[in-house]
Known about the structure:
Blueprint: H1 3-24, E1 44-46, E2 51-53, E3 55-56, E4 60-67, E5 90-92, E6 121-127, E7 135-141, H2 159-162, E8 167-171, H3 176-180, H4 184-189, H5 198-213, E9 219-229, H6 231-240, E10 251-255, E11 266-267, H7 268-279, H8 284-288, H9 292-304, E12 312-313, H10 322-327, E13 336-341, H11 351-362, H12 366-372, H13 390-413, E14 418-423, H14 441-445, H15 460-479, E15 499-503, E16 511-515, H16 519-522
Parallel strand pairs: 2-5, 7-8, 7-9, 9-10, 10-13, 11-12, 13-14, 14-15
Antiparallel strand pairs: 1-2, 3-4, 4-6, 6-8, 15-16
Amino acid sequence: MNKGRKMQASALINGLSNGLKILCLGLASSAPLSAQGPDPTSPRVATAQGLVQGIPTETGTAYLGLSYAAAPVGDLRWRSPQTPTAWDGIRRADAFGPPCAQPPLRGQTAISDISREDCLTLNIWVPRKSSGDKLPVMLWIHGGGFQNGMGSSPTYDGVALSRHGVIVVTLNYRLGVFGFLAHRQLTAESAHNSSGNFGLEDQIAALRWVSANIGAFGGDPANVTLFGQSAGGASVLNLMTSDQTAGLFARAIIQSGAARSSIAPVALADAEGQGETFAKGQSLAALRGMDTAAILAMADEAARSGARFSPVQDGYVIRRAAATAIADPDRPATPLLIGSNAREGLGALPADKLEGAIRAEFGKNAAAALAAYGLAGPNPATPDRLMGTPAEQFSTDSTFRCGAVNIARVSAAAGAPVWQYEFEQFVPGREARGAAHSFEVPYVFGNLLTTGFSAAPYAAADRSLSDLMVRYWTNFAKRGNPNEPGLPVWQAYDSSGQAYLRLSSERRGNAEIGHDLRGEICRLFPQD
């Protein structure tokens, strides 16, 4: 990684948790906002492990806290997920499972205090349906920088999406050191000679559980759309290009997750080295015998020394760079909806370091890049109302925006149908931040809440935009195309027009087509 990318990676990683705070905190242990309480008359569903009974919602039934894998504790810590234990009788699926073990987020302990290692659960929202229906499925992977978050955030309540005839699934997966520790001893004991991607393996286990069981809930296992944001979007990209996910999902939605190499998977040897630094010479048996708090304290110490516990190019789950895998003619093309937000300037560099980072990042194209950012002349560049200061523009371009542009380009070239967007909405009360990281998620779920950390004084214009986005997203999940009669036409991305949809209540009909998103900048980046 060159100097510019190291600087940008550090700024991005430091800023991720702050940018995601609005989504990761909230009513972690409560029932969903739509739940009406347990009801013994609620439908019972036979899963591979046993009978479950859900709770009614305004649009159907929710099944909460279903185990999709065994508890990864004791000797199962840092092992591939195992099949969950079966049970006799009927299990009430009326409460979320705890979030996966994680440290406090920027000093906030609402989630970390209730987090546990025994956390591999998922939640299902099923709309009312005819008995013969086989409904499309949308499986959500939460963000949080691979360090924080939970599938039970009120922002992710699935009722609004399920109202449009889809089954919604959210899940927890192992985070931080529990999900992404690589170590030579772990690699040696692994059946597939790899380590470091236990969190991604959890996501794959959840997909396999859904494939095996969702038919009993009325879902179509052949029509699963995987979607996620930030680290969740990066997870979608990793799974979309993995050899271990064939047949488990049909389509993919990547929201602010196709970041360029600044937060790409770490090389296995480097990750193993970080793991050995973390372990301080202790055996795996000793580490597996420690309590959760002790492991988190050791991980915090390692992180302060530069360790990053996140996905690893391990040769098993992740075998090669995403763009290389997508371009492989022997791989089936995955229909893709992909985009970013207009101002995702997490951890933007200070002005005195910006020029040096741009020069290091762009190399021979540095002079053209400085001119494009308005930094070539003697006068300070004027901030753009939509995209922010040059530092914020560089932060967004060098990670989420041009990463999404590149994956859209490569996917379309490989023959996949691709729809690209940019979210440009100014959220009420947060106008000064622009369309910042994570701000689109409440609109996608149709959950414009008035309480919690994603709350805002949303107006009618916001609800209209959200309604449109919900329809686009669920249409894509149903048919692989976001369009339907009566909606503004969303042109597919191709190499000639390079169309993308600008989503904002300031646009006519909340959506207008643009072309060649940030082309003059994105083409200057080295092509990875």
